[in-house]
Structures are given as C-alpha cells and as structure tokens.
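Quick one, probably user error.
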C-alpha cells in the first residue's frame, strides 16, 4: 500500500449531500481496509455527518458546494477534512444557546479526542475554511487485551 492515499468528493450544499458524503467516506475507508463495523468507522461516519451538516446549514447559502477530503498518511494517520467557501469559522456555542442545535463541534472534538486524535481548522486561499480531524489509523494493529476482571 502506498505511503499516502487520498480521495475527495465535492457535493452541492444540500441536506441530501450529508448522507452522500457519509456513504462516500464509508466506501473509501472500506477500500482502504477499515471494516465497516469498526468503532473508528462509526466515529468517522458521525464526524463526517456533523461536518457536512455544518457546511450545509451554517454557510447560509454562501457556499454552493462543500468538499470532503480523506487522506491516509503512512498507515499512521487518517485525516478527514470538510471544506466550504464561507469565511466564518466554527464556534463553540454557550450552553444556553445549544438547546436544539450547536452541539456538532462538541461531538466532533470529543470523538477525535477519545480516539487519540485532534481537530484543526485551516483557511483556504479562496477565503473559506477546512475543518480537519486527524485520527490514528489502527487497521492491522493488534487489538488491546481486555481485563479478565471486566473493569
């Protein structure tokens, strides 16, 4: 397998594109050897759903498309980024504002941290931004031994 693999898809900023982005990423990860039922696969699908939803809902029609980039670097790190052309960067909302929505970035940060990964945001040359998550790639790594006591 190559030291670096990449895939990307650009979709219209439409709610139906969220499911298409999720399916695309799941298919690519499966091709790269990540079992569909792996915990990492579930986390990445949820992260992509949240990032794509943000790209559709929070760009206020100013980003006609969004792009999902997937990179596997040296069989060590999986990087997934969602790019839109809106200049506003994601913000963590105060708890009082987060009643019906606004929890997406909290979920993404928690999932990335739980997997030993990180989240970052980078500007694009066109004035938009890419929200990236980087997760350790554990495909082929030995499964940690479980405690016999169940603790």
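Nope, works fine. Designed sequence:
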């Amino acid at each position: 397998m190559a030291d670096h693999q990449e895939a990307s898809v650009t979709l219209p900023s439409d709610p139906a594109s969220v499911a298409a982005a999720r399916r695309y990423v799941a298919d690519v990860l499966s091709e790269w050897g990540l079992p569909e039922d792996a915990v990492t696969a579930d986390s990445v699908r949820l992260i992509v759903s949240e990032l794509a939803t943000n790209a559709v809902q929070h760009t206020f029609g100013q980003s006609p498309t969004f792009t999902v980039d997937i990179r596997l670097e040296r069989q060590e790190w999986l990087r997934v980024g969602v790019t839109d052309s809106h200049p506003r960067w994601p913000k963590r909302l105060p708890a009082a504002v987060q009643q019906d929505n606004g929890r997406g970035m909290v979920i993404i940060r928690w999932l990335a941290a739980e997997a030993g990964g990180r989240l970052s945001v980078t500007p694009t040359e066109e004035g938009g931004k890419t929200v990236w998550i980087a997760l350790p790639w554990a495909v082929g790594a030995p499964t940690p031994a479980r405690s016999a006591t169940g603790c």
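The CA atoms of residues 109 and 119 lie 6 Å apart.
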